[in-house]
Amino acid sequence: MQKGQIRKALSGFYYIYSEGETYQTRGRGNLRNRKITPLVGDWVEFESDNLIEGYLLDVLPRDNQLVRPAVANVDQGVIVMSCVEPNYSLNLLDRFLVTLEYEQIKPLIYFTKVDLLDDAAYQEVRQVKAVYEKIGYQVFLPNQTSNDQAIKELVELFEGKLTVFMGQTGAGKSTLLNNISPELALKTGEISSSLGRGRHTTRHVELIPLNGGLVGDTPGFSAIDFTEIENTELTAQFPEILKASEGCKFRECLHIHEPKCQVKLELENGTVEESRYKNYCQFLSEIENRKPVYGKNKK
């Protein structure tokens, strides 16, 4: 029996990297019976006499997993936000952030298509950058003439990490990865002018060795649903709201109608950003009104 990591999953095959070699394997039937779905990023046990006819036997315990993109054992997630075509959405940005926070994955925020902004629009994005940096997030905003410095700073964080790139379709994830490492030659797509969003140019998750770490380019999407998070857990996914909540009168204060709520007080004095609080309230409503999913695995 051998141990390795799934670097790619495609058409029923799992490509496992182990001791300098990549093995093409299929999953044993007992994985289905045990309702185990191997994910890219999983550490696994497998057996193989050659590089193309192996069998994946078992999946080792995960540190975390994402549903969209479907990848496990992630260290950090680069949220790629397009400044134009499609325009960035703070609601979508916060959805990504909540998803990563819940799985204890370090978020990094990277703005693309900055060169298409006029000076006024660029200053607006700089203000957004300042808001999220104040919360504690690392934000990469290239200058309007070159993204070289921002890319250099981002790439320095790859070493020893499994990093996924995520963002809505057309945000420029594959283009950004091509700029980071041209030899990847990842397929990029044009924006559909009729739909105002990009075509799905990435069809599967694949981990690529890059700058001492592993990087995944993942399919784009424009919606994230909170299927696992409970209403009492949402506060902890907003760092600044969590910090403020320490002063709330009630331990499980949801910061909506409760008296003596420190979060609402800090919202009034500007310590908690209004857009973040509005998104918190929207997400809380979605969680409280979602239909129950029976038989799901709880964290």
From TrEMBL:
Q: Where does Zn(2+) bind?
A: C248, C253, H255, C261
Annotated cofactor note: Binds 1 zinc ion per subunit.
* EngC GTPase domain mapped to chain residues: 72-222
Q: Which GO terms describe its cellular component?
A: cytoplasm
Enzyme Commission identifier(s) = 3.6.1.-
Task: Read off the PROSITE patterns from this record.
Answer: ENGC_GTPASE (PS50936), G_CP (PS51721)
Q: Does the keyword GTP-binding apply?
A: yes
- The principal localisation class reads cytoplasm
Task: Write out the entry's keywords from A to Z.
Answer: Cytoplasm, GTP-binding, Hydrolase, Metal-binding, Nucleotide-binding, Ribosome biogenesis, RNA-binding, rRNA-binding, Zinc
Task: Tell me, in a sentence or two, what this protein's role is.
Answer: One of several proteins that assist in the late maturation steps of the functional core of the 30S ribosomal subunit. Helps release RbfA from mature subunits. May play a role in the assembly of ribosomal proteins into the subunit. Circularly permuted GTPase that catalyzes slow GTP hydrolysis, GTPase activity is stimulated by the 30S ribosomal subunit.
Instruction: Name the protein family.
Output: Belongs to the TRAFAC class YlqF/YawG GTPase family. RsgA subfamily.
NCBIfam families hit by this protein: ribosome small subunit-dependent GTPase A
Protein name listed in UniProt: Small ribosomal subunit biogenesis GTPase RsgA
Species source reads Vagococcus coleopterorum
Q: Upper taxonomic classification of the species?
A: Bacteria, Bacillati, Bacillota, Bacilli, Lactobacillales
UniProt gene name: rsgA
